[in-house]
Amino acid sequence: MDISIYFEPIELPDYKFGEDSSGFRMGDLLRSYVDKKHFPKLDDADLAIIGVNEDRNAVNNKGCAHAPDYVRNHLYKLFRGDFNPRVADLGNIKQGHTIDDTYFALTSIITELIKNKIIPLIIGGSQDLTFCNYMAYESLGRVINIVGVDSVFDLGKTEQELDSQSYLNKIILHQPNFLFNYTNIGYQSYLVDPEAIHLMKNLYFDVYRLGGIRKNIEEAEPLARNADLITVDISAVRQSDAPGNGNASPNGFYGEEICQIIRYAGLSEKLSSIGFYEINPKKDRNDQTTHLAAQMIWYFIDGYYARKNDHPYKDKEEYIKYTVSIKDHKDQLVFYKSKKSDRWWMDVPVKTNYKNIYKRHHLVPCSYNDYETACKDDIPDRWWQAYQKLM
Q1: What is the pTM of this model?
Q2: Residues 353-387: tens digit of each pLDDT
Q3: Pairwise CA distance, residues 123 & 132, whole Å
Q4: Are strands 229-233 and 273-277 parallel, antiparallel or unpaired?
Q5: Which residues is 13 bridged to in the sheet?
Q6: Distance between CA 343 and CA 310 in Å, rounded?
Q7: How far is CA 371 from CA 194, 224, 300, 322, 360, in A?
């Protein structure tokens, strides 16, 4: 499939390629679509940046369609880290005649990239584009986990049309359904209807309050490691650090905290797509939000090139196995610890007839704290949530 038909070249009048950089700035290292005659080659690309100039279904945040080139303008000026990026910047998707045209184009592009083992980095645009990202996995027949870094759940109402504040509801209700688990990182209780929190628990989804994650940011690592798709709403960051958003709140993650979470995402061998949404240059102050988004993308790329390739599916000899018996519980809890990275997984039982469907989901990323909880004769919440779905 020729995905180039969906794109238009990048125009960055403020960025001078190769000027005063010794060739080490990201803009000089990325394969960028700047000439209509030369679409970037994807033969050996690891990652692909996609800009989406679309905000027709944005709620209270019109103007976020302009974000991609503003973010690029800062990303391109950053120096590379300890990596040699094989990253293609494919340019911006041409806005469709209708929003459904844009949705179709984005889904088709993401499907093609994932099929070719290239991770799409989507710069929106509004967060309803997450639904298009999800639909790409449906077309591939792949059951997935979604992680949302967001101050709210974006459930909307059942009868509500698809928009940036109802996309998750559309994913949950969509049939056939390919969503195994949804995890929210950083919700703020006073912004969320208590009934929505109750619904999340009834669905055995994992939701983590902002304060709980900020108290121990390292607990976000196994959450990000369990995701196939991550969707980031910039409103998860406090307004003082990211003012460029119509739904910004005084509270949220600090800039350095969101960058740490995004680096965890890059480190995950399971993750195969990520999107950054709701960044609004019209509401920004001194490009502060677009600059932060550029640094987030830099940290994702840095994490990607620091991957350890140590998922337990690959070679059980590279792991230390721990078995813990829980009083009055029929199943022993099995943990694996990587000798390479010291990261932990739990092996959760699955029904025999579901093993093929859920083979990517019964080894659940966890932390040492979960192992400690089991050693104290208590079942970790993370294990129990997965068990409910698998059995």
Answers
A1: 0.95
A2: 666 677 778 899 999 999 999 999 999 999 999 98
A3: 13
A4: parallel
A5: none
A6: 9
A7: 31, 18, 28, 9, 21
Query: What pairing do the DSSP bridges indicate for beta strands 273-277 and 319-324?
Result: unpaired
Specify whether domain 3-304 bears CATH 3.40.800.10: yes
pLDDT at 20 over 70: no
> Is the predicted pLDDT of residue 15 greater than 90, yes or no?
no
Q: Is pLDDT above 70 for 352?
A: no
Q: What is the DSSP string of 227-290?
A: -SEEEEEGGGB-TTT----TT--S-SB-HHHHHHHHHHHHH-SS--EEEEE---GGG-STTHHH
Please, what sign has the CA dihedral across residues 25, 275, 113, 299?
positive
Q: Exposed, middle or buried by CB within 10 Å (0-12, 13-18, 19+), for 388?
A: exposed
Tell me the pLDDT of the chain averaged across its residues.
Answer: 93
pLDDT score at 312: 73
Work out the burial of residue 168: count CB atoms within 10 Å of its CB; fewer than 13 is exposed, 13-18 middle, 19 or more buried: buried
For residues 40-54, average pLDDT: 97
User: Sign of dihedral through CA atoms 192, 224, 169, 348?
Assistant: negative
Q: Which residues contact 117 (CB under 8 A, 6 or more apart)?
A: none
Euclidean distance between CA atoms 161 and 169, whole angstroms: 10
Domain range summary for the chain, segments of one domain joined by +: 3-304, 316-390
Say if residue 173's pLDDT is above 70: yes
Q: Alpha-carbon distance 243 to 236, whole Å?
A: 11
> Can you tell me the distance from the alpha carbon of 370 to that of 334, in angstroms, rounded to the nearest whole number?
11
DSSP 120-188: EEEE-S-TTHHHHHHHHHHHHT--EEEEEE-SS-----TTPPS-TTTHHHHHHH-SS--EEEEEEEEE-
CA distances for 272 relative to 95, 99, 226, angstroms: 24, 25, 11
Residues in the chain: 391
The helix (H) or strand (E) run that includes residue 370 is: helix 368-375
